[in-house]
Amino acid sequence: MSTVEIGEGFSGSGADAAHINTLLGHRDGPVGTALATALATPTPGHTPFLCVYEPGVPCEPPTLFVNKATIAGDHHGELTWGAAQAGVAEGVAAFAAERFSASDLRKYAVIVAVWVNPLAQNASAVYRNNREATLTALRQGGQSLADADVPATVARWRSGQPAHNPYFDPR
Length: 171
Hints:
By secondary structure, the protein is of the alpha+beta class. The chain has 5 helices and 7 strands.
């Protein structure tokens, strides 16, 4: 494994969509240091916390959940700390089951930056989209650029395809 695997995942549409960024690395490396630092330095509206699969059962590898959107009320908080956290936990567990042995889990740490739109409403969709986006991001981070002759962004740029995302499309 490289020192740090960086991934991105997007799933769903509208206000219930999920956008995830992940860092996966060794606990005794830069990801472990970043996890400990972020956990110890919350800021107003952004309180990183250790993600749990269920109360009393922390994710393995340890996973720091960082909300990208400032909590905008009780419902948004419940979706972030409830449905989104459960989706992230499922995505991490699915990835861990694919990739790691039980002894390997103790070597790694994960940081997940999570976007939950303050206008989101459907807890089931938020859960499902965060699960899928987390799994996608972790899988993407594990793909080696050595497997491709040209990184995807350079290939798209060379072909004339403009950069776009779910919030902006210049085409």
